[in-house]
Amino acid sequence: MEPPFDAVHIWKSSLIIADDEYQAFWRILDLAERTRAVQFRARLQQRRFVACRAQLRCLLARYLRMSPTAIQFTRGTHGKPRLSDTEPDQGLVFNVSDSGDHALYALAYNRMLGVDLQIWRGLNNLDGLVERCFAAPEKAYWQSVPDSERRALFFSFWTLKEAFVKAIGIGIPFGLSRCMVRPGENPRLLAIPMCCGAANDWMLKNLELGTGLSGALAVKPRTPRIVFRELASACLSGR
Ligand SMILES: CC(C)(COP(=O)(O)OP(=O)(O)OC[C@H]1O[C@@H](n2cnc3c(N)ncnc32)[C@H](O)[C@@H]1OP(=O)(O)O)[C@@H](O)C(=O)NCCC(=O)NCCS
What we know:
This protein is an alpha+beta fold.
C-alpha cells in the first residue's frame, strides 16, 4: 500500500471476529500483547483486544511492507505507542481508538496524530463530566441546547478533545478542559495552552461513523486529504 505522505488514512473496523480469525490474530501478537490479553477476565474484552492489536499490526505491515509479527512498538512518557526506532511524531505515525465492537486506526507520516471513537453509551453523570472536562464557554454552549441533543453533543465535544490530547501524546491527564473546541460541521480548536503551539496549526475533523457512534481526528500540521476506509475482516490476506 502507498504510504500516506500527504494524507491521513483512517481505517474503521469491527472487532467481532470468528474463531479461526481469533487463532490467526493470536499468533501474530508478541509476548507482551499476549500477556496483556490473558489479563482480561471477560472473554469478549480479550477477543476485542486481540482483534484490535492484530488489526493494527496487519495495517502497519501493509504500509511498511513487512510481516505483522516483525513490527515492534515502543511507548512515549505518557504511554502513546509508536514504532520502535522512530522519534515521536516522525516517520509512519499511527493512533488507535476502540469502543465496544468498533475500532479506528489513523495513519500518516511525520504528523502529530490523535483519534478517538466513542459509542454513545448511557452515562450517569453527564453534568458532572461536563463540569470537570469542559471549558466554561463549552459548558455554557452544551447547557444551551435542548436535552434531547445533549448526549450527541457531549460525545462530539468529548471525541474532539480526546483526539487532541491523544495527538499531543499526554492523553486525559493533560486535562480536557485545557483545550477548547468548537464542534459542528467544521470543528475547530479554539484555544490551547501556549506549550502546545498555535491552535490554528491544528486540524480537527468529525468522522462519520454511523448512528450512535462519534469519532474525531486531530492532526498537526493540517492535512489536505483524509482518506476513510473500512477494514475488511480478511485483513491478514492483504486485501
Ligand atoms: C490514552 C487514553 C486517552 C485512552 O482513552 P480511551 O478512550 O480509554 O481509549 P482509546 O480506545 O481511545 O485509546 C486507547 C489507545 O490509545 C493509545 N494510547 C495510549 N496512551 C496514549 C497516549 N498517552 N496518547 C495517545 N494515545 C495513547 C493506545 O494505542 C491505546 O490502546 P492500548 O490501550 O491497546 O495500547 C487514556 O487512557 C489516557 O489518557 N492515558 C494516558 C496516560 C494514563 O493515564 N496512564 C495511566 C497509567 S500511568
